[in-house]
Amino acid sequence: MSQNGSTIAVTIDNRSFDVTKGITILQAAEQNDVYIPTLCAHGDLSPHGGCRMCIVEVEGMRNLPTACTTPVENGMIIRTHTAQLQTMRMEILQLFMSEHTSSCLICDEKVECKRFMVTVRKASVTTGCRYCPNDGQCEFQDVAEKLGVTEIKYPIYYRGMRVETDDPFYDRDYNLCILCGRCVRMCQEVRIANVLAFKNRGRQTMVGPAYGRTHFEAGCEFCGACVSVCPTGTLREKTRAWEGKPDREEVTTCSFCGVGCQVRLLVKGNRIIGSLPADDSLVNEGQLCVKGRFCGTELANGPLRLKNPYRVEGETKAEISWETAISLAADKLSSCAPGDFGMLISPNCCNEDLYVAQKFVRVAMRSHRIDTSARFFYGSGLNAYTNLLTMSVPLSALQKASTILCVGLDSRFARSVVGVALRRASKRGAKIITIHPRHHNLAMIADKWLQPLPGEETGLLESLAKLTADARETNETRARSQSTDANHDQDLASIADLLRHAEAPVILVGSEFLQYDTSASILDAIARIAQNIKAGVLPLPSHNNFHGSIVMGAYSELLPGGLARAKGAQLPLQWGVEPPADNSCWSAASLSDKERMKTLYLIGEIPYSWEPNADFLIFQNIYPPDGFCHADLVLPAAAFAEVDGSFINGEGRTQLVRKAVDAPGGALPDWQILCRIAQKMGLSGFDFSSVESIREEISQVAKNLGRFTEITREPIPLPFAGERFVIKPKSAVDSRRSEDYPYLLTISAVEHSHRGFPLSNWVEGSKMLLTEGVLEINPEDAKKAGIARGDEVVVTSVHFEKVLPARLVREQSPGTLHASLREYTYFNPNPQPVRIRRQECSG
Amino acid sequence: MSDNTYNDIFSAFRGDEGDLIAILLRIQEKFGYISEDAVKHTAQFLRLSENQIYGVASFYSKFRFTEPGTTSIKVCMGTACHVHGGKFLADAVSWKLGVSIGQVTGDRRFDFQRVNCLGCCALAPVVKINDRVHARMMVTGLEEILSRRE
User: ipTM score here?
Assistant: First the structure.
């Protein structure tokens, strides 16, 4: 038995092992393949010692210690399976069973029941008990089977509680709960969200939030981490319940925001049945947010997914074959002059799609008229935002920062992975400063929360930039400032001090201010603060591949490589064509009724702000166009789980997207459709056989990227290039409230969208969480205006009048209103003063 | 219950997690119960979530979450009191006031609870009305006391 400083010798079941010092008996046993039954222990969580299944005998110790909480000691002699232990375990398990419905564990007809569950009658009927959807994938069942429990001696005390189904995405049946505390520990230790807690005592003990509130009311982020660790069927996903075990898993990159988490897609047959976080140390560290955890499955499996191409003539839709569709598109596009064409592609698409699309526009259409919806989304702040991407640091910087400044970031539903990292940082002692107009989930952990009125955040950030510029200047500014709000100034000065003396500070940029008129100056001020205090910036783009859309050159002003296109610049040599004669820059934001185009090609985009005004509209997406858009030719595209490709996240990390299932019907990846049209048009250079061959060409064309054939996941910030886009920042508009217009309305874009569709269109649960098209109003204000939940409210300003249903939100500060809308670009200026009244029903 | 009342209570504490139970005790002393508002304020002060605080508070039977009535009646059901007929006393209160254990009368005047021992078993059975312990209580005596208070 060798023994040095770091290992000690123990004997488990008469076999000797050398194990690492400091681990528990359970860990030592697991490392050496000795089975000790357990229900409450979990690798990611602290030892709990609650279920008492892992009791062991240790020579020289009184009683029977639990293996999960007892550290190994040198020379320990441990027995794990003596007759006494087994009897006691059986006893304990039976005590569990007296509360837990157990027909799946000990029923006499268990075996026959499984065999004859599906009964063939005139209509097939499934018989048998149906208490729990986790039959066959339940740890409680495993332990009962391994111990060989066949009967319950104790009386049955089922608790008869109502199954909680009020919350989106998962249900809770606490009749099955064995109080192992895994979900509580997950919520408190790992997520630090503190929504779940043990309530009451003794037989009344339950898991849940305070006062019988729903999870939604209690501030739950719906990350689903508790569901993943539940050893029974207590916590169950609404969509995955009854699906059974997955056949296989595929690790891919989430496509719902620019954080770029790694997810494990669970596949059964040719269908995705769920997604779980991948154990990825680079980005999400085994965490996901509600979008990555729950939304992908429903989005990919929607029954309305496009399966075959169709053509719309007048009121009729006619399904056509791919050949006909391709020739029709090729026909229309060949006869279209470069100046009459436009293409909008979604920044949700893979790099390879974006590259082929811009090559298609430049080579096949002889034009530079390509754009993405990022142009509307970031508006005048587009340039400033891209500049922030050049300063981006990896997410791991949050682990070292002593001070973190969050601007307009709410990490409850979107980017909750970053929220977890922030809460960890705060626990470690880092100072968190947050700037947000509304109550948000960082307010709880923030050391300072600056709450500017909408329209005042530019001034706030600019004075912060000035204060951080130089220590001497700070004092001067402090002396000079004669603001009415002395408290506020002092706050600012102390924050500036904190920032200046911070070690490795980080600035996180959320999406609250991005649609403001002043977004450009807000983002510029952030950049200046970052330079002053030498902070890393982490812009967290809303579009998963916004970074990729820039470096692939999917904008009229840019070429592959992501650099600004000089007037008359040559196209890459490999393409073998002269640059298009039309050199002008084109922006989809400038499209209006005046400019009627011959052909418009939409790839994963639905512009809401204007009636797509074209003679012929090609619509390529995963779902059919909704009321906002009339299409002439509809082409079915494959969704993110059905293609190979790559995304670049906000840190500049290129990550692989892997095909998990086949696309429904005849849907094809975007790049394949484009290549087929180009080939039909008789062009060479579009004969890509796979995404690898596209990556090969990208690495030849855009030498400055130099990473596209071997994706290393190394974060590379956007190369610095000064001004990329030709958008002029808007000048600030006076947005003060008056007596006539006593409320300040801010409008934001629907951030939770995928390929142009708000997630709430296709994902049932997100209707409650990721709302759009509603007016958020403080309950006090609503009371004053006589507005109740769900009432139609007429919002009037100098410029417009709009009717929106009301949603009373405590988080909204009094005197302000907020709405996230698809047609957000209509409502200028933003923010703007409005008045509201309840719409009276007529008749 | 203004913010100031809470601030007065909180001013005696540093704001560590360990102060929670002491704070809850002070709040209950002051208001007679732990209101939702109190949990919210305590959560902000200690930087814990309301759920955690409720979890801790609901573990202890000392803490109550409903507003108490003006007169508190505690019937002892400890071993000694039980064998001396504590249950009859409890039933009598129930009949008389029309409430069961843990409830408050509709007019908020009486608050009926059971306790498991008041530490004076030699005097069993006992009933505690407000701060006064009534020794060797009998149903008739209890009814008399209650009618006097009604």
Answer: 0.89
